[in-house]
Design a protein that fits this description.
Elements lengths: L1 H28 L9 E5 L7 E2 L1 E7 L2 E6 L2 E2 L2 E6 L3 E8 L2 E9 L5 E3 L2 E11 L3 E2 L1 E10 L2 E11 L13 E2 L1 E12 L1
Parallel strand pairs: 11-14
Antiparallel strand pairs: 1-6, 1-15, 2-5, 3-4, 3-15, 6-7, 7-8, 8-10, 9-10, 10-12, 12-13, 13-15
Length: 181
């Protein structure tokens, strides 16, 4: 009988300890983003997501080229509100800058999970050849900046008449850990 009471007490104690840990983790992640007032996010170098696979295509004199900018993020920042976003990341000492407008169709809100999606209109000051999207995500895994530019706006982008004045940045879908300022 005494042994059973000790076991029940131990189980109750472990349950309370686990509940307090879960509750404290929820309160740490509960720093809410208010897009109506705008938000500034900066790179979280201690976060889980800090690797990106990106590159830049070139097309000159009928020849393709590719410069690889894949690796660990050196820095990232995003300033966003309910209408627009300006975000950037640095990898291999190269800055990739994005300007976009809010896209309700790319956004998702369900309980603790929130995604504010934006359609990018400029990459490094140029119109992108690849459909580029960025999003600010907040949920159980923290806050992150999502970037993607891996689908061409036309089947043969090299045939576009003004391709020389367009951004040819390609990015595999990636998350970048961020902190709300």
């Amino acid at each position: 009988m005494k042994k059973r009471k000790v076991i029940l007490f131990t189980i109750a104690l472990i349950t309370m300890l686990f509940a307090s840990i879960v509750n404290s983790q929820k309160s740490e992640a509960a720093q809410e983003i208010d897009m109506n007032n705008g938000a500034v996010l900066t790179f979280d170098s201690s976060g889980a997501w800090k690797r990106i696979y990106s590159g830049v295509y070139t097309f000159e004199a009928g020849r393709y080229g590719y410069a690889d900018y894949s690796g660990e993020i050196q820095y990232a920042q995003a300033t966003a509100n309910s209408r627009s976003i300006q975000a950037a990341y640095v990898v291999k000492d190269r800055i990739f800058d994005f300007v976009g407008t809010y896209s309700p169709s790319d956004s998702y809100f369900n309980g603790d999970d929130k995604i504010w999606g934006y359609t990018v209109t400029q990459v490094n000051g140029l119109t992108p050849v690849f459909k580029t999207t960025v999003a600010i995500t907040q949920g159980a895994y923290g806050t992150s900046l999502f970037v993607k530019a891996n689908r061409s706006i036309v089947p043969n982008w090299a045939a576009l008449p003004n391709v020389g004045n367009m951004s040819k940045v390609t990015i595999e879908p990636a998350y970048i850990s961020m902190n709300l300022q």
